Amino acid sequence: MAEGPNGFPGGPSDSTPGAKKGSLANEQRLVALGQAVDRRAGLTPSTRHAKRHRGRNWAIVGLVVVGLIVAVVGGGYLYAQWRFSKITKVQNTAETGKVPGKPFNILMIGSDSRAGLSGLVAKQTGATSGAAAGQRSDVVKIVHVDPEAGTISMVSIPRDTMTSLVANQSLFGKFNRINVNFGNGPSLLTKTITADFGIPINDTIVVSFAGMINAAVAIGGVYLNFPYPAMDTYSGLRIRHPGCQKISGLEALDLVRSRHYQWYEHGVWTTDATSDFGRIWRQGVFLHAMVARAKGIYNPLTINSFLSKLPQGVALDQNFTLNDLIGLAVKFHSINPANILTYTLPVVPGKALGGQDVEFVSQPAAQELLVKIFGNELKAPTNPPPNTALQTPPPPKIAVPTTTTTVHHTTTTAAASKSTTTVHHTTTTVHHVTTTTVAPEGDQYFDPTVCTP
Predict the structure, then answer these.
(1) What is the pTM of this model?
(2) Are strands 403-413 and 420-430 parallel, antiparallel or unpaired?
(3) Taking the domains of the chain in order of start, what are their residue ranges?
(4) Does residue 72 sit in helix, strand or coil?
(5) Minimal CB count within 10 Å: which of 183, 296, 322, 431?
């Protein structure tokens, strides 16, 4: 194969025609099923439809949810239950119980575990060298679901964010990156998030390298438009030509892992200096594309392939039920991927005691963001994260956004009938919290975007 500029491999990227767009089959049955699930949760039909087109999501939730709901509608509840039982369950003893119909939080963990990988994939990801043994939380996202408002919000915590550790201080010190807390599973990571940020966690989803690859393959790949050729010599990413193209399998993993992203413009390779922040942004773009792809699945063979591959590298906590997924699917299956938005916890760069480059939580911007998303659900942190001076002051007090309603009474008298009519005029004043984003975000002109082939 011929080589392109600067030794970059030439030749076309793999591309295949995309599947036709379409809505989920048996829509009426889907709605009826959703109403039944909502009744169990104590929700009324009016609240179920409120603001149904608003919200934010993460793709693995979308994939799990849409795949299972389509299986329920098209193949039967028992089949979906059987498939669901094959998904690995993990124990998270630090979770808090959900209240039916009330907001809840899902901890989404992208694990860097190489377990289950073999051959070229294992070699490229470092599984054969032993250098990347064990597991760390490469991606930490908290998804806030509000069933009454019909919204989903998500905040990403950069992997190098310094936290106050609640365990393993003899190994990692009093302060260390958040990703060291996942070594033995999600319980310690959950305890750390709640202790440092006051965020209660109700459910957990863990996706390993193998899970990311299998989900991308099972969904049939996603379509992204790359404005320039791109590569990452660390993750193995190779995008040889610009344009809308299918990304699947190992290539999908290479993209979402890319922290040293480069693009070829005007004969020069340029590196995205935002590192982990650029990676978080591109993950969001890729996952938006996965949600868009999953929403159009209704071919029984594709559904079965997806559900059969899903358990390989995807794990749910012991409290996550099939009905939980069905409830999410019914409420959010019609969401427009273009409206899916994400937040990144504001941080500032700094140095750890050993001289390593790390990130420190930036206040008051971080607390403003958390209050905006979680409101009164936030608890007072018992172990606040350190600042750049390695001090642990409590977060600043930020008022929760409130809605104040004032009722004005107007009385009019009809002369002929002498009847009196009282008209109630309602004026609503909303107090907003302004969030300042300190961390550099993506959305750069060189980043890929969702496209349709």
Answers:
(1) 0.68
(2) antiparallel
(3) 5-390
(4) helix
(5) 431
